[in-house]
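We recall that each integer encodes one residue's backbone shape. We quote one record:
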Amino acid sequence: MAGLIRGEFQEIISPFLKEKMAEVAATSGYGAPEYKALALQYQRDPQEVVVLRHQSSRHYEAVMAPGADGPQPQDGPHLRGVERLYRRTLLVEPTIRCAAHCRWCIRANYEVADLSPTELESVARYAGSPALRSDITEVLVTGGDPLVTPKLLRLLVDELKAHAPNVTTIRIGTRMPFQAPSRVNDTFLAIIRDADPIRVEIGLHANHPVEFWPETTDALNAIRDAGATLYNQHPVLAGVNDDGDTLAELYEALRAHRIEPHYMFHAAPMRGMEHHRTTVDELLELHRTLTTSGRLSGRTKPKPALLTDIGKVVLTEGAVIGRDDEGKRLLLRTAYSVEDRRRWNPTWTLPPSAVIGADGRMAVWYQDRKEKPDPSPA
């Protein structure tokens, strides 16, 4: 994932993806929608050098800003690779490396790093500490792609079993079945099986129906047979999946492979990535098209969501409570309490984009895509 060299996000495409892209080009041509869907996701674009003033260099920049420390256990050091935005879930990043670099990556500007065995043990002890036991019930393992470092993933799961009996669910976010399915091997499948009695859920990231290759299907079946539940979340990306027909086909493919739908994200305002974004209204129109046209079963409908500075916001009725038309910003209502957030993570600071209401709940400004992007430097 992370891979900045001299300020540029390096292009990394796995051998498997290169082979599949060549196959699609040979059968359908470079101009085919299926080829473009892959090329736009993985090939570097000259537009990435355009950085707008409103864009962030980091995912949740206000929460985990460059140099910021993670949560701090009582009488212990700050924890690297840990985020806590929600009451029930602790996010852990054993590695920031991936098999391929998605050009719209929300963690593209993170430093390349792996957690040490000692750090992973500290994370597990933190998750199971008396202060957290009444709250934390699940750990989301992300990164980077955890399957890049299976030894670290195994160690984290074992340490959680040993030190955090309150954790009943482990979620593992990965794109490996779509980028390098051979990594879904006996070593990884054994981690899933040996996690019992902890429930394992695998968060996938399929963006287009072309990604369901035979090797990918075999990997997904193996994960399911090992005892894990599969779910999918994805951004809506301009030129990749920002049309109703493609999304309908994607969600039909997900159901055919017994993968639960989760979030349908608006592409976040990351530096150099404006060309990948739709507007929020376009996202909502796509969601309306999918969910009110009778094209999909109710069991396959996703939740439209935004990644804000204070956490995910699902676009339910009444979520948007204000607009800044000149700056193309939306003010979003949340039920996040600032007191709860500070209790969960005492090092957390309120970002400038957030507003505290009289009831202590936070609203947050979110940057929409500007209709005519201003190419002024950040």
Remarks:
- Confidence is low (pLDDT under 50) at residues 61-69, 373-378.
- The radius of gyration is 20 Å.
